[in-house]
Amino acid sequence: MKKLVVITGASSGIGMELARRFSAEGHPVLMLARRREVMEELNLPNSLCRSVDVTDLEAMQSAVREAEELYGKTDLLINCAGLMLLGYPAEQDFDEWSRMIDVNVKGVLTGTKAVLSDMIARNEGTIINIGSIAGRKTFDNHSVYCGTKYAVHAMTESMRREVSGSNVRMIVIAPGVVETPLLSHTSNQEIKDNYNLWKQEIDGGLEPSQIADCAWFAYQMPQEVCVREIVIAKTKQAD
Length: 239
Ligand code: NDP
Hints:
Blueprint lengths: L3 E5 L4 H12 L4 E5 L2 H7 L4 E5 L5 H15 L2 E6 L14 H29 L3 E5 L12 H21 L5 E7 L13 H13 L6 H13 L8 E4 L7
Parallel strand pairs: 1-2, 1-4, 2-3, 4-5, 5-6, 6-7
Helix pairs in contact: 1-7, 3-4, 4-5
Bound molecules: NADPH dihydro-nicotinamide-adenine-dinucleotide phosphate.
């Protein structure tokens, strides 16, 4: 059997497509998100679905250990779970800022904590973090979201340097707009409407499967090759 792939945010959008893709390539997958039923409906072979909040380190570690007892050590972790709550800086609720920091930043660290030391001990393994073009440049109404994604990019690159000697790969994939329910959680209707108008101007976002293609490309390179960063967006997306 191929090696275990752990995917957070597997109940929707990009994460769900990643699970489909890596399963189709023959990998056992551990699918993590809060909504377990949606993941179970996919009915992927050699898969385990667990309802885990990515901010909960103990729950994350216990789900990973359970999957590893069934399928062997984690060879690839994809930290994909995320939340985008756009807002005006002076008006946005503190709670929305706080949730984005918890899920987008701490949520990447719980997964990393669950697998990284084992990968270093084995001298193999890969972690792919889903960043964003909003982790490389700023956009209006995105300030805290951008802050969380800049953090993902900084942590990935910094850790990559430090674990490189152990043959462990750390990769960041930075997509532009992708067609998923991500925007639906933003509470400000005016911001959502303007975002959707802008999306129409670029003929819509990328397909989630195109992000899965990028993850598969980076992963299937030999372990000695690290594709450090992939930035991908619709050609018509100027920023
Ligand atoms: P979706 O809203 O479709 O998916 C988000 C996923 O994150 C869901 O599976 C959700 O599962 C999970 N999630 C959210 N909060 C938690 C939590 N506390 N614990 C566990 N899981 C959680 O969005 P996308 O697929 O678009 O987003 C995936 C990643 O891609 C995010 O990190 C996002 O920032 C990034 N991205 C997306 C872009 C886009 O345009 N769509 C562009 C650039 C980056 P559940 O609700 O079941 O817990």
